[in-house]
């Protein structure tokens, strides 16, 4: 199967598998993470609701795809009160 | 007179999020008449996660009205989730509506989760395999329920609340290929069938805030990753005078 050492899977299939895993793995369940293929590996970007979730994504991806270099650019969404309102006349 | 509406969607609350929104939510009575939640309150739709939502969004000092999202359906515990939310005083809409007496007038909110299907000219049709027909019929039934709920409300200002998007405008930033999984034109058609003043939705984390329906109704994507704050506040007003 794709992602196993020695299989030399096409990167596109690894990308698809990681994307599906991010949604379907109960410990992740994120639909808002983008997986982009770069020359030197995959870049995960997007935003999550807590630092714990960001760590969990990286842990699960590394566990499942130990040979795939992954860079993280995942942020935690701010939760401050708004400073402006939108007037809708 | 102005009706002040706070809104956010896609908060995906679990134990690790409890307390993050609360400081900003405590300010709501000073700045809003109501808080509308545009679905995906939880990560997997479990009763335990719903209790976390109830702790975070219950007892705020303003009425809280919500629809559910696709994440809230994941574990097939919708009745339990709804009960926990309602026990916390949160009104859950699904093809239904409610009217609130606000200082600025009567606010009507009609809500439905909605569904995917795509947008005019690039959408699924009720044709072919049973699975495809079932998909599109779900879309249509959801939109019909929203239209009925909108038209049933007697109020001064009417708001449509959905999880899925009613227009493609607010999806800008998402890959075009997934638009059919993010919303459907039938929800926009339902919104345009009533004197709707504002439509709020979530679901599209990479989308944009502002759009309009073909009929000119203002649409706002209030998904938390889009608004990047605890909630947005809208002042609906002058048309009431």
TrEMBL record, chain A:
Can you tell which superkingdom this protein's organism belongs to?
Bacteria
* The name this protein goes by in its record: BON domain-containing protein
Origin species, per record, is: Micromonospora humi
Organism lineage reads as: Bacteria, Bacillati, Actinomycetota, Actinomycetes, Micromonosporales
From TrEMBL, chain B:
Record organism: Micromonospora humi
**Record's protein name:** Predicted phosphoesterase
* One cellular component (GO) term of this entry: membrane
The record's section on Gene3D superfamilies has:
3.60.21.10
Q: Name one GO molecular function term.
A: UDP-2,3-diacylglucosamine hydrolase activity
Every Calcineurin-like phosphoesterase domain range: 3-167
Q: Which GO terms describe its biological process?
A: lipid A biosynthetic process
List keywords of the entry alphabetically: Hydrolase, Metal-binding
- Signal peptide extent: none
Origin organism lineage: Bacteria, Bacillati, Actinomycetota, Actinomycetes, Micromonosporales
The keyword Thylakoid is assigned to this record: no
